[in-house]
């Protein structure tokens, strides 16, 4: 029974427009998504409950969200700093990423 209390799972919640990370039966955090005018999935915000910080749950929920978006053939627009950092540091096979314009663009 204690093992289930600490089991970490990620679920997509379409009604809330987010991927949620659960520790046992407790919602520990989420990363939000919303389609833009072109149908791309914008990821503006990631949040983890302070009681669950320091466990890597933000990385966990973002990693699973990006893998799921790749499986769905979606284009992701990373706006949240957590999502941006994850995508800069990790390759997600099959994921189409549309980087927002940056002020000091490198060409």
UniProtKB/TrEMBL annotation:
- InterPro entries under this entry? Acyl_CoA_acyltransferase (IPR016181), GNAT_YJDJ (IPR031165)
One Pfam family linked to the record: Acetyltransf_CG
Q: Which residues form the N-acetyltransferase domain?
A: 11-100
The protein's name: N-acetyltransferase
Organism, per UniProt? Answer: Microbacterium jejuense
């Amino acid at each position: 029974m204690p093992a289930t209390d600490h089991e970490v799972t990620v679920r997509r919640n379409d009604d809330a427009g987010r991927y949620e990370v659960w520790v046992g039966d407790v919602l520990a955090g989420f990363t939000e998504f919303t389609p833009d005018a072109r149908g791309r999935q914008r990821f503006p915000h990631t949040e983890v409950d302070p009681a669950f910080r320091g466990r890597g749950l933000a990385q966990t929920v973002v990693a699973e969200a990006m893998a799921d978006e790749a499986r769905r053939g979606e284009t992701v627009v990373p706006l949240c700093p957590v999502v941006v950092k994850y995508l800069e540091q990790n390759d997600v096979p099959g994921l189409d990423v549309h980087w927002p314009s940056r002020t000091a663009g490198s060409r």
